[in-house]
Amino acid sequence: MNHLEFQFNIKPFHPWSDILMAYLSEINFHGFYEKEGVLNAFISEIEFVQADFQQILDSFDGKGVEISFVKNIIKHKNWNASWESNFSPVEINEELCIIAPFHERNEKFKRTIVIQPKMSFGTGHHQTTYLMCEAILQLDLREKKILDMGAGTGVLAILCEKQGCTDITAIDIEEWSVENCIENCITNNCDHIISSCGDVDLIAGKKFDVIFANINKNILKSHLKQYFMSLNKNGLLYLSGFFSTDINELRVLAESIGLKYKSTNTKDEWAMLILQK
Questions:
Q1: Residue 79 pLDDT greater than 90, yes or no
Q2: CA atoms of 178 and 59, how far apart (whole Å)
Q3: Beta-strand (E) ranges in the chain?
Q4: Helices (H), 10-77
Q5: What confidence score (pLDDT) does residue 117 get?
Q6: Residue 231 domain-assigned?
Q7: Please, what is the angle between helix 127-136 and helix 155-162, to 10°?
Q8: In the structure, what pLDDT confidence band is assigned to residue 32 with cuts at 50, 70 and 90?
Q9: Are 154 and 253 in the same domain?
Q10: Residue 93 — very low, low, confident or very high, per pLDDT cuts 50/70/90?
Protein backbone atom coordinates (compact mmCIF):
# COMPACT_ATOMS: atom_id res chain seq x y z
CA MET A 1 0.00 0.00 0.00
CA ASN A 2 1.48 3.32 -1.08
CA HIS A 3 1.07 6.60 0.77
CA LEU A 4 0.61 10.17 -0.38
CA GLU A 5 2.77 12.89 1.14
CA PHE A 6 1.45 16.46 0.97
CA GLN A 7 3.84 19.32 1.64
CA PHE A 8 1.79 22.41 2.52
CA ASN A 9 3.09 25.96 2.32
CA ILE A 10 0.85 28.09 4.50
CA LYS A 11 0.95 31.88 4.87
CA PRO A 12 0.69 32.85 7.67
CA PHE A 13 1.83 29.52 9.09
CA HIS A 14 0.38 30.01 12.59
CA PRO A 15 -2.33 29.29 13.61
CA TRP A 16 -3.43 27.98 10.21
CA SER A 17 -1.12 24.95 10.12
CA ASP A 18 -2.77 23.58 13.27
CA ILE A 19 -6.24 24.27 11.91
CA LEU A 20 -5.44 22.55 8.60
CA MET A 21 -3.96 19.59 10.48
CA ALA A 22 -7.16 19.19 12.51
CA TYR A 23 -9.34 19.21 9.40
CA LEU A 24 -7.10 16.76 7.54
CA SER A 25 -7.10 14.35 10.48
CA GLU A 26 -10.87 14.07 10.08
CA ILE A 27 -10.44 12.65 6.56
CA ASN A 28 -7.85 10.02 7.52
CA PHE A 29 -4.60 11.97 7.19
CA HIS A 30 -1.94 10.74 9.65
CA GLY A 31 1.69 11.26 10.55
CA PHE A 32 1.93 15.06 10.52
CA TYR A 33 5.15 16.93 11.11
CA GLU A 34 6.43 20.46 10.56
CA LYS A 35 9.82 21.22 9.08
CA GLU A 36 11.29 24.55 7.99
CA GLY A 37 7.91 26.24 7.83
CA VAL A 38 6.25 23.44 5.84
CA LEU A 39 3.47 21.16 7.11
CA ASN A 40 3.91 17.57 5.92
CA ALA A 41 0.90 15.27 6.05
CA PHE A 42 0.44 11.64 5.03
CA ILE A 43 -2.49 9.52 3.97
CA SER A 44 -2.72 6.05 2.46
CA GLU A 45 -3.50 6.12 -1.25
CA ILE A 46 -6.64 4.03 -0.85
CA GLU A 47 -8.07 6.36 1.84
CA PHE A 48 -7.56 9.59 -0.08
CA VAL A 49 -10.79 11.15 -1.42
CA GLN A 50 -10.17 14.12 -3.69
CA ALA A 51 -13.62 15.66 -3.11
CA ASP A 52 -13.18 15.67 0.68
CA PHE A 53 -9.69 17.10 0.34
CA GLN A 54 -10.85 19.88 -1.99
CA GLN A 55 -13.74 20.74 0.32
CA ILE A 56 -11.28 21.37 3.14
CA LEU A 57 -9.11 23.60 0.97
CA ASP A 58 -12.17 25.54 -0.22
CA SER A 59 -13.19 26.18 3.41
CA PHE A 60 -10.14 28.43 3.82
CA ASP A 61 -11.18 30.79 1.01
CA GLY A 62 -11.67 34.35 2.19
CA LYS A 63 -10.09 33.75 5.61
CA GLY A 64 -6.84 35.60 5.02
CA VAL A 65 -4.64 32.54 4.53
CA GLU A 66 -2.82 31.22 1.45
CA ILE A 67 -2.33 27.45 1.10
CA SER A 68 -0.40 25.68 -1.65
CA PHE A 69 0.93 22.14 -1.73
CA VAL A 70 3.09 19.58 -3.47
CA LYS A 71 1.92 15.94 -3.57
CA ASN A 72 4.32 12.99 -3.63
CA ILE A 73 3.77 9.24 -3.76
CA ILE A 74 5.73 7.28 -1.15
CA LYS A 75 6.19 3.55 -1.60
CA HIS A 76 5.07 1.57 1.42
CA LYS A 77 8.57 0.35 2.25
CA ASN A 78 9.78 3.95 2.58
CA TRP A 79 7.07 5.11 4.99
CA ASN A 80 8.94 4.53 8.24
CA ALA A 81 12.18 5.98 6.89
CA SER A 82 10.39 9.17 5.88
CA TRP A 83 8.74 9.49 9.30
CA GLU A 84 11.81 8.59 11.34
CA SER A 85 13.97 11.19 9.63
CA ASN A 86 11.65 13.89 10.97
CA PHE A 87 10.66 12.50 14.38
CA SER A 88 12.21 14.42 17.26
CA PRO A 89 11.90 13.67 21.02
CA VAL A 90 9.01 15.29 22.92
CA GLU A 91 9.87 16.76 26.31
CA ILE A 92 7.17 17.53 28.88
CA ASN A 93 8.23 19.61 31.90
CA GLU A 94 11.34 17.48 32.53
CA GLU A 95 8.89 14.83 33.75
CA LEU A 96 8.46 12.85 30.56
CA CYS A 97 10.42 12.31 27.37
CA ILE A 98 8.75 10.57 24.43
CA ILE A 99 11.29 9.15 22.02
CA ALA A 100 11.49 6.83 19.03
CA PRO A 101 13.52 3.58 19.16
CA PHE A 102 16.44 5.22 17.35
CA HIS A 103 16.80 8.06 19.92
CA GLU A 104 19.12 7.96 22.92
CA ARG A 105 17.54 8.18 26.37
CA ASN A 106 17.94 11.39 28.36
CA GLU A 107 18.40 10.48 32.00
CA LYS A 108 17.28 13.88 33.31
CA PHE A 109 13.66 12.88 32.72
CA LYS A 110 11.76 10.90 35.36
CA ARG A 111 9.91 8.87 32.75
CA THR A 112 10.69 7.83 29.19
CA ILE A 113 8.26 6.32 26.71
CA VAL A 114 9.50 4.75 23.47
CA ILE A 115 7.04 5.13 20.60
CA GLN A 116 7.31 3.74 17.09
CA PRO A 117 4.51 5.86 15.62
CA LYS A 118 4.20 4.37 12.14
CA MET A 119 0.89 5.84 10.90
CA SER A 120 -0.81 6.24 14.28
CA PHE A 121 -1.73 9.48 15.99
CA GLY A 122 -0.21 10.23 19.36
CA THR A 123 3.51 10.94 19.59
CA GLY A 124 3.20 13.90 21.95
CA HIS A 125 4.15 16.36 19.24
CA HIS A 126 0.59 17.53 18.83
CA GLN A 127 -0.67 20.00 21.42
CA THR A 128 -3.63 17.83 22.44
CA THR A 129 -1.48 14.77 23.18
CA TYR A 130 0.91 17.05 25.08
CA LEU A 131 -1.99 18.41 27.18
CA MET A 132 -3.22 14.91 27.98
CA CYS A 133 0.23 13.65 28.95
CA GLU A 134 0.76 16.71 31.12
CA ALA A 135 -2.53 16.01 32.92
CA ILE A 136 -1.79 12.29 33.44
CA LEU A 137 1.56 13.15 35.02
CA GLN A 138 -0.35 14.91 37.79
CA LEU A 139 -2.55 11.89 38.59
CA ASP A 140 -2.15 8.93 40.93
CA LEU A 141 -3.80 6.15 38.95
CA ARG A 142 -3.19 3.25 41.31
CA GLU A 143 -6.31 1.09 41.73
CA LYS A 144 -8.09 3.03 38.98
CA LYS A 145 -9.80 1.54 35.93
CA ILE A 146 -8.84 3.55 32.84
CA LEU A 147 -10.13 3.91 29.27
CA ASP A 148 -8.00 5.43 26.51
CA MET A 149 -10.48 6.06 23.70
CA GLY A 150 -8.95 6.71 20.28
CA ALA A 151 -5.68 5.33 21.60
CA GLY A 152 -3.57 5.68 18.44
CA THR A 153 0.02 4.78 19.35
CA GLY A 154 -1.08 3.96 22.91
CA VAL A 155 1.09 6.68 24.44
CA LEU A 156 -1.61 7.78 26.91
CA ALA A 157 -2.36 4.22 27.99
CA ILE A 158 1.34 3.53 28.43
CA LEU A 159 1.77 6.66 30.52
CA CYS A 160 -1.21 5.61 32.66
CA GLU A 161 0.49 2.31 33.45
CA LYS A 162 3.69 4.15 34.35
CA GLN A 163 1.55 6.24 36.71
CA GLY A 164 0.50 3.11 38.57
CA CYS A 165 -2.61 1.89 36.76
CA THR A 166 -3.00 -1.87 36.34
CA ASP A 167 -6.35 -1.96 34.49
CA ILE A 168 -6.30 -0.09 31.18
CA THR A 169 -8.50 -0.47 28.11
CA ALA A 170 -7.19 1.09 24.88
CA ILE A 171 -9.59 1.33 21.92
CA ASP A 172 -9.07 2.61 18.40
CA ILE A 173 -11.21 2.31 15.30
CA GLU A 174 -8.22 1.58 13.04
CA GLU A 175 -6.72 -1.93 13.00
CA TRP A 176 -3.20 -0.67 12.29
CA SER A 177 -3.42 1.68 15.27
CA VAL A 178 -4.32 -1.25 17.50
CA GLU A 179 -1.36 -3.21 16.15
CA ASN A 180 0.91 -0.21 16.72
CA CYS A 181 -0.42 0.21 20.27
CA ILE A 182 0.29 -3.43 21.07
CA GLU A 183 3.83 -3.14 19.69
CA ASN A 184 4.49 0.00 21.73
CA CYS A 185 3.13 -1.64 24.89
CA ILE A 186 5.58 -4.50 24.43
CA THR A 187 8.45 -2.07 23.81
CA ASN A 188 7.63 -0.22 27.05
CA ASN A 189 7.18 -3.43 29.09
CA CYS A 190 3.50 -2.73 29.76
CA ASP A 191 1.48 -5.72 30.94
CA HIS A 192 -1.80 -4.10 31.98
CA ILE A 193 -3.15 -2.66 28.73
CA ILE A 194 -5.79 -4.42 26.65
CA SER A 195 -5.90 -2.97 23.13
CA SER A 196 -9.04 -3.51 21.04
CA CYS A 197 -10.28 -2.46 17.62
CA GLY A 198 -13.71 -0.85 17.49
CA ASP A 199 -15.84 2.14 18.38
CA VAL A 200 -17.58 3.44 21.49
CA ASP A 201 -20.05 0.54 21.51
CA LEU A 202 -17.22 -1.63 22.89
CA ILE A 203 -17.55 0.07 26.29
CA ALA A 204 -21.32 -0.42 26.65
CA GLY A 205 -22.00 -1.98 30.06
CA LYS A 206 -18.44 -1.34 31.29
CA LYS A 207 -17.36 1.11 34.00
CA PHE A 208 -14.25 3.24 34.34
CA ASP A 209 -12.83 5.62 36.92
CA VAL A 210 -11.11 7.82 34.35
CA ILE A 211 -11.70 8.17 30.61
CA PHE A 212 -9.23 9.88 28.27
CA ALA A 213 -10.59 10.73 24.81
CA ASN A 214 -8.35 12.65 22.43
CA ILE A 215 -10.36 12.60 19.22
CA ASN A 216 -12.10 15.36 17.23
CA LYS A 217 -14.99 17.50 18.40
CA ASN A 218 -17.77 15.84 16.41
CA ILE A 219 -16.84 12.34 17.53
CA LEU A 220 -16.53 13.50 21.14
CA LYS A 221 -20.02 14.99 20.95
CA SER A 222 -21.46 11.74 19.61
CA HIS A 223 -19.68 9.73 22.34
CA LEU A 224 -20.52 11.91 25.36
CA LYS A 225 -23.62 10.03 26.51
CA GLN A 226 -21.79 6.70 26.42
CA TYR A 227 -18.85 8.19 28.31
CA PHE A 228 -21.28 9.43 30.96
CA MET A 229 -22.91 6.02 31.29
CA SER A 230 -19.53 4.27 31.46
CA LEU A 231 -18.09 6.46 34.21
CA ASN A 232 -18.24 5.39 37.84
CA LYS A 233 -19.65 7.90 40.32
CA ASN A 234 -17.16 10.78 40.73
CA GLY A 235 -15.30 9.46 37.68
CA LEU A 236 -13.28 11.89 35.57
CA LEU A 237 -13.52 12.51 31.84
CA TYR A 238 -10.63 14.17 30.00
CA LEU A 239 -11.50 15.43 26.52
CA SER A 240 -9.13 16.87 23.92
CA GLY A 241 -8.72 17.08 20.17
CA PHE A 242 -10.56 20.36 19.65
CA PHE A 243 -9.89 24.10 19.55
CA SER A 244 -10.19 26.47 22.49
CA THR A 245 -13.10 28.11 20.65
CA ASP A 246 -15.03 24.82 21.00
CA ILE A 247 -14.78 24.63 24.80
CA ASN A 248 -18.13 26.23 25.54
CA GLU A 249 -20.02 24.09 23.02
CA LEU A 250 -18.67 20.87 24.53
CA ARG A 251 -19.14 22.10 28.08
CA VAL A 252 -22.80 22.99 27.51
CA LEU A 253 -23.51 19.61 25.94
CA ALA A 254 -21.65 17.75 28.71
CA GLU A 255 -23.51 19.59 31.46
CA SER A 256 -26.83 18.91 29.74
CA ILE A 257 -26.33 15.15 30.20
CA GLY A 258 -25.22 15.39 33.82
CA LEU A 259 -21.46 15.90 33.72
CA LYS A 260 -19.92 18.54 35.96
CA TYR A 261 -17.36 21.00 34.64
CA LYS A 262 -14.03 20.87 36.46
CA SER A 263 -11.47 22.86 34.47
CA THR A 264 -9.83 23.49 31.12
CA ASN A 265 -6.28 23.81 29.89
CA THR A 266 -5.01 25.14 26.57
CA LYS A 267 -1.87 25.01 24.45
CA ASP A 268 -1.66 27.33 21.47
CA GLU A 269 -5.08 27.08 19.78
CA TRP A 270 -5.94 23.67 21.28
CA ALA A 271 -7.81 22.72 24.44
CA MET A 272 -8.45 20.01 27.03
CA LEU A 273 -11.67 19.84 29.04
CA ILE A 274 -11.97 18.03 32.37
CA LEU A 275 -15.41 16.85 33.50
CA GLN A 276 -16.70 14.75 36.38
CA LYS A 277 -19.71 12.51 36.93
A1: no
A2: 32
A3: 3-11, 30-35, 38-44, 66-74, 90-92, 96-99, 111-114, 146-149, 168-172, 193-197, 208-214, 231-243, 260-267, 270-276
A4: 16-25, 50-58
A5: 63
A6: yes
A7: 20
A8: confident
A9: yes
A10: confident
